[in-house]
Amino acid sequence: MATPGDQHLAAAKRLLRYLQGTKGLGITYGQDHSGLLGYVDSDWASDVTSRKSGKGCVATMNGGALSGGSQAQSMVA
User: Fold this and answer.
1) Which residue in 69, 14, 10 sits closest to 38, CA to CA?
2) Whole-number Cα distances in Å, 50 to 44, 47, 53, 54, 73
3) CA dist., res. 46 & res. 41, Å (int)
4) What is the pTM of this model?
């Protein structure tokens, strides 16, 4: 980034405030020895405005979330 502006400085400050306020939070990996698990879900046209379907997934290890995401379909069939 050659010339960061005021917007970039504001975003960096917001990120630092967030990190300062969440220092005590984290993912707990306890005695749950379930290993690596994946969960997925989808719905059929649940968005009443666009009538688009959605999908989501999350991966966990020993009870703590590793990764997740959700997405609405790009078009209505």
Assistant:
1) 69
2) 12, 6, 9, 11, 10
3) 13
4) 0.50
